[in-house]
């Protein structure tokens, strides 16, 4: 894709994926890969930041004879996600207006 | 390089971070390798790339976060510059930017030295004119006394101005040179330490 999306879009996508269900790092990377190009090393810093800001939490579950770390969204994270959705809608409408033109005939 | 090498190098490159930060990051990548499976390990290592780069991303994120938490301390103010530099060097897109910054710094330095060199040349020229004037004024005393005195005075003025300019330019160059060497070596030292 020729459009460069900033960190906030990535944050929003991660929160969006997590509000559907809890995930571990690898599955989350794969899911985000469906919608944008990210490298294998991109996800950890994002998750670390979201955790520090209190939007996600981690817990461990045994899997295949080891402990796998899962990420889950917090209440604060859900609120943040809602505000991201609202901002995204506003942004999308604005971009539509400019790029597709006159949708609202304003 | 295999998984163990990658993890060791990652740990080594993260050693400046607090213990829990290191453990958290290492566990993430241990999980990552476990989840990706033994058969995909080679491809994962290629995708991840240089562990130094992976570590730099983690460090950049950590330092930006810490800087945000305590924006008032002088120390973070200083390290914010380091973080920005680190972030630039860590990101492949911004790498040309770092190169440009170095070129700008070097050309600025060249400008300063060129300016000082021209000051020095001016000083020497003034001094030369002064010496000639003073020497010429001596035989002139017997021909045009007042003209000779005027020439002598002018010559001495020129000599003095030239002397001051020359000394000034030399001292300024020395100072600039010493400062540059000092700051460059400091930067180099810091890079090799960290």
Protein topology:
The complex is a heterodimer of chains A (106) and B (194).
Chain A: H1 7-20, E1 23-24, H2 25-33, H3 43-52, E2 56-63, E3 66-73, H4 75-101
Helix pairs in contact in A: 1-4
Chain B: H1 3-13, H2 19-36, H3 41-48, H4 51-69, H5 74-90, H6 95-140, H7 145-193
Helix pairs in contact in B: 1-2, 1-4, 4-5, 6-7
Short description:
By secondary structure, chain A is an alpha+beta fold. Chain A is built from four helices and three strands, in the order αβααββα.
Describe the structure.
The complex is a heterodimer of chains A (106) and B (194). With 106 residues, chain A is α+β, with helices and mostly antiparallel strands. Chain A is 57% helix and 17% strand. Chain A contains four helices and three strands; from the N terminus they run αβααββα. Chain A has helices at residues 7-20, 25-33, 43-52, 75-101, and strands spanning 23-24, 56-63, 66-73. In chain A, helix 1 crosses helix 4 (75-101). The radius of gyration of chain A is 16 Å and the shape is elongated. The model of chain A has no long low-confidence stretch (mean pLDDT 89). With 194 residues, chain B is mostly helical. In chain B, helix 1 (3-13) runs parallel beside helix 4 (51-69) and helix 4 runs antiparallel to helix 5. Chains A and B meet through helix 2, helix 3 and strand 3 of A and helix 2, helix 3 and helix 4 of B.
Basic shape of chain A: elongated
Sheet having the most strands of chain B: none
> Which quaternary structure do these chains form?
heterodimer
Task: Strand order, main sheet of chain A: write it out.
Answer: 1-3-2
């Amino acid at each position: 894709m020729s459009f460069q999306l900033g960190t906030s879009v990535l944050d929003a996508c991660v929160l969006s994926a997590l509000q559907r269900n809890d995930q571990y790092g690898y599955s989350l990377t794969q899911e985000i890969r469906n919608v944008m190009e990210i490298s294998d090393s991109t996800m950890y810093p994002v998750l670390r930041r979201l955790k520090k800001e209190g939007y996600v939490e981690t817990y461990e579950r045994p899997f295949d004879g080891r402990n796998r770390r899962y990420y889950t969204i917090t209440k604060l994270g859900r609120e943040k996600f809602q505000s991201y959705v609202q901002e995204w809608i506003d942004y999308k409408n604005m971009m539509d207006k400019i790029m597709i033109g006159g949708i609202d005939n304003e | 390089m295999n998984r163990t090498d990658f993890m060791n190098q990652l740990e080594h490159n993260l050693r400046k971070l607090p213990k829990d930060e290191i453990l958290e990051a290492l566990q993430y990548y241990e999980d990552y390798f476990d989840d990706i499976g033994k058969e995909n390990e080679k491809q994962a290592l290629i995708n991840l790339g240089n562990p130094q780069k992976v570590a730099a991303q983690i460090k950049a994120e950590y330092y930006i976060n810490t800087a945000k938490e305590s924006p008032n301390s002088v120390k973070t103010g200083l390290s914010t510059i380091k973080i920005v530099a680190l972030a630039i060097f860590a990101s492949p897109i911004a790498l040309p930017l770092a190169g440009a910054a170095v070129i700008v710094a070097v050309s600025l330095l060249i400008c300063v030295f060129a300016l000082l060199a021209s000051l020095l040349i001016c000083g020497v020229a003034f001094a030369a004119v002064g010496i000639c004037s003073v020497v010429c004024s001596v035989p002139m005393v017997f021909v045009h006394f007042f003209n000779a005195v005027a020439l002598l005075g002018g010559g001495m003025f020129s000599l003095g101005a030239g002397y001051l300019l020359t000394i000034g330019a030399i001292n300024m160059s020395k100072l600039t040179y010493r400062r540059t060497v000092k700051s460059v070596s400091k930067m180099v030292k810091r890079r090799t330490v960290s």
